[in-house]
Amino acid sequence: MPSTVIPEPEILIPPTPRAKGWRAPLAALASIVHAGEVVHPLVPTGKERPLSFLRRLVQSQLLLLLFFELNIISRIWLTEGYSALILVLGITLIGALYGMALAIGSAILGALAFDYFISAPTFIFTISQVKHFAPPVIFTLAALVSGWLSGRLRDQTQRTMRSNRQLESLFAVSRDLQRASGPEDVYRVMHATLLRQFPETGGRAMGVYRPDHGTMQPLGNSPALPMWLDLARQALAGGRELARGGGISACLLDTGGGCNGVILVSDDPEPLDPAYLLALGRMVALALERIDLADDLAEVLAKARADALRSSLLASVSHDLRTPLTVINTAASTLLSFGGTFDAETSRGLLTDIVEEAERLNHLTTNLLQMTRLQSQDIGLRMADLSVSEVVRRVVAHGGRLAPGRDIRFSLEGADMTVRVDTTLFDLALTNVLHNALRYSQPPSSVDIACRRDGDDCVITITDQGIGIPPAQIERVFDRFYRVQREDGGTRGSGLGLAIAKGFVEASGGAISAQSPVADGHGTRMTIRLPLTAIED
Amino acid sequence: MTTGHILLVDDEPGIARALTPALRAIGHEVTVAQDGNAAIAQMMLNSHDVVLLDLGLPDMDGKEVISKIRQRTNTPIIVISARHQEEEKIAALDVGADDYVDKPFVLGELLARVRAALRRRHGQRKTVTHFDGGWLQIDYATREVRVGGDLVKLSPKEYNLLRMLAENAGQVVTQRRLLAAGWGRSEADPQYLRVYVGMLRQKLERGQDGVSAIATEPGVGYRLVIDTVQDEA
After folding, report:
1. pTM higher than 0.80 for the full model?
2. Option in A327, A341, A490 nearest B25 (CB)
3. Following DSSP, what letter does each residue of A478-518 receive, concatenated?
4. Band of pLDDT at residue A306, cut at 50, 70 and 90
5. Which CATH superfamily, name and number, covers A183-294?
6. Which residues bind DNA (chain B) (predicted)?
7. Cα angle B173, B177, B179; round to 5
8. What pLDDT is stored for residue A161 in this prediction?
9. Do A353 and B17 lie within an 8 Å CB cutoff?
10. Strand, helix or coil at A454?
11. Of A329, A350, A492, the CB nearest to B21
C-alpha cells in the first residue's frame, strides 16, 4: 500500500506589503501552506469580516451627518415634514448597515438635532407640543425595524458562511483521510482540519482515542492526560454518539459495524456544531476502519506469500529427494531383475550409482537438518576450537573421493589457525562450497582451496575454473533453493548448500562472498572469513 | 514383439545409467537425450517407438518438448515427473503426452507402461475391431461387452466410457477425454464421471480378484489396468 505521509501543517505568513488594515488577516489566511500545497482559505475571498465597533460608530455618525446636511439643503425646496423623511431614510440606512444599536443611537441624536436645528422654532429644544413627539418616535421605529431586519440578514449570512466553512472543511477532511495510511495520519488530518477551521485560536485541543485491551490508546499526538483518557473511556462506556462535559465534546467513532474509537474536542472558545462533529466522527471512523482492513489484508497477503514460499520449498525438497531415490530404486530393481544377464562392468556401474545416490541423499538430509538448525534460534551451536587446516584437509579428502579424477589443491599460508565454530556446520559449509565448485566446473580443471591469516581473521578461498556466475545472479547464489543454471544441464544441487554456508559463517561472526569471473571470464571464487580464536597464553 | 527403440530424455545421468541396462535387457534399443533440444533433434534424426520424458529439463519446459514432438509424429510419450502436481500432469497430457509415471517409479510398472505404449503403437497400424483383455471382452462392431464370458448390459454412456478406457488400456485417460466420450462435452461436471465409473466398476466386478480394473489417477483421470491378450502367434 502506498503510504502518504501527511506532515504536520505549518502556517507560513509571508510578508504581504499590500495587505493592510482589515485585509491582513484574510491575506494571512490565504497563505496557509499545507504539505507543500496552498490550502484554499475557508473564508470566501472578497467577503469582509465584521468591522470593529469604533469604526462602525464613526462611519454611522458620518452617514448621519451626511443625511443631516442633505436635510438642511433640502429645506430650500421642501417643507419640514418632507425633509424629516430624508432623515428617516438615513436612519434606516444606518440600521441596515450598522445594526440596531447604532440606529437607535442615531435616531435619538437625529431627533434631537432635528428638533434643535430644523423644526421651527429653530435653535430651541421644543418638545412641549404633541407634534414634536412625532419625529423621535418615527425615527426610533425606523431604526428598530431596519436594525432588526439587517440583524436577521447578518445572522443568516453568518450562518450560511459557517455552514459553508464546515462543508468545505468536511470536503477537505474526506480528501485528506483518503490518503491517510496509518492511524497517526488520521490524527494529523483531524488536527490540521481544526487548525484551518479556527486559525485565529490556533486550532483546538483535540484527540482521537481507540480502545485497546481495555485501555484507551491516544492516536498520534492526542493528549495523553488522565482527564482526557478518562473522558474518552466514559464516552465509550456511555455509548451516546455525542456527549459533552467538562468543556470537552466527545463523538463516538461508529461505522455501523461497531464503535472503534472516540474523538474528543475542546469546547473552547465555543462548542463545535454537533452535526459537524458527527460528520467528522463518521469520516474518521470510516478511515480508521479502512486502515484496519488494509492492515488485515496486508497480513493475510504476507501469510499467503509465506505459505506459497513454504510449499515451493517443500516441492523443491521433495523433488530433490525423489531423484536420488528413483536412481537407487531403478538401479537396484534393474540388478534384481536382470542382474544375471549383465557383464561385470554394467553391474558395477549400477552398484556405484546406488552408493553415490545414497551418499547424495545423505548429504541432502544433512543439509536440510542443519538448515533447520540454523534457522531455529533456540538450538544453540556447539562451538569448539578447531584447527582450520585439519578441517579443510578432511573436507578435501572427502571431496576427492566423491569426485575421482578431479584435482583439489590445498595450500596454507603461514602457521595453522584456530577458529571457534560449530564442528558439524563448519564441515558442512566447506563441503557445500567445495561441491559447488566441483559441480559448476568441468573435469579436468582443478579447484584451489587456500587459507591465510588476515589480521584477526582466517580467510579461506575456494576457487574453481568453471562457468562462473552471471553478474545478475551473483547476489542471489546464497539464497535458499537458488540454483545457477549449468551450461550442460548436468547434475543439479539442492540449492541449499551455499545458503547453509552463509548461515553458518554469519552465525560464527564471519562473512562469505562470491566473486566471478576470477580470470579470463571464467571461474568463481568463494571467500569465507572467520574470526580467529583469541590467543590465550 | 513388444520391443522397440526408446528415447529416454532425462537430465539426471544417474537415471539414464540405471534405466538403460534394464530397458536393453528386455530387448529395447535405447537412446539418451539430456535436454529438450537434444530430444527434439533425436526425434528428427531417428524414428523412435516410445519417448520417456522427464518434465524438468534444464533448457526448456517438458510440455514444450511434447508439443514440438507432436508437430511431426504421434510416437507415444510417457512423462516421468518428480513434481507430482496434478495440473502439470494434466497439462502434459493435454498437449499430447500419452501417459505419465511418478518418480520414484517401480521399475516393473514403468516397463509395463512402455509395453502398453508399444502395443498401442503397433495397434495403430491396423484397424481395431475388438478388445480382448482375457476376462473382459468388447466387440466394437456389435457393442457387446462380456465379463468372464457373460454378456453385460451397459448404458450407452457406460459403454462409451469403457470403450475409451479400453482403447487406451494401461494408459491414463484424462477426465476431459472421458467426459467428451460419455457426454460429448469435455467441460461437463466430473461428478457425473465419478458416478458412472462407480457403476461401471460394479458391472465389471465379476471376473476380477478384488482389485478394480479401473484405477483412479487422483485429480487426473482413470486407467484400465488390463493387459490385452495379444494375437502374437
Report:
1. no
2. A341
3. TSTT--PPPTT------S-HHHHHHHHHHHTT-EEEEE---
4. confident
5. GAF domain (3.30.450.40)
6. 126-226
7. 115
8. 87
9. yes
10. strand
11. A350
> Is there a single domain that holds both residue B118 and residue B137?
no
Residue-wise pLDDT for A314-327, tens only, equals: 777 777 788 889 99
User: Is the Cβ pair A489, B57 closer than 8 Å?
Assistant: yes
Residues of chain B positioned with their CB less than 8 A from the CB of A330: 15, 18-19, 22, 104-105, 107
C-alpha torsion angle, residues B107, B109, B114, B120 (rounded to 10)? 170
Asked whether the beta carbons of residue A353 and residue B106 sit closer than 8 angstroms, the reply is no
Residue A194 host element (H or E): helix A183-197
**Total number of domains constituting chain B:** 2
Q: Which residues of chain A have a Cβ shorter than 8 Å from any chain B Cβ?
A: 315, 318-319, 322-331, 333-334, 337-338, 341-342, 346, 349-350, 353, 356-357, 485-486, 488-492
Task: Express each pLDDT in A114-147 by its tens digit.
Answer: 778 777 777 777 666 666 777 778 888 888 888 8
Amino acid identity at A417: M
CB A280 within 8 A of CB A190: yes
Mutation site for A-interface testing, chosen from B3, B15, B83, B89 by largest number of A Cβ within 10 Å: B15
Q: How far apart are CA A526 and CA A477, in angstroms?
A: 11
A331, B18: Cβ pair inside 8 Å? yes
Listed by start position, the domains of chain A span 53-158, 183-294, 373-531
Quickly list H helices, A209-255: 226-238
| Chain A residues with beta carbon closer than 8 angstroms to that of B18 | 326-327, 330-331, 334, 350, 353
All cell numbers assigned to A286: 470510516
CA distance A26 to A11: 13
pLDDT tens, B142-196?
A: 989 988 888 888 898 899 999 989 888 888 898 888 988 888 887 778 888 888 8
Pairwise CB contact (< 8 Å): A489 & B59 = yes
B134 domain-assigned = yes
3-class secondary-structure state, position A324: helix
The residue among A260 and A347 whose pLDDT is bigger is: A347
Point out the domain boundary residue: B123, B156, B184. B123
What fold is seen in the domain A373-531? Answer: Heat Shock Protein 90 (3.30.565)
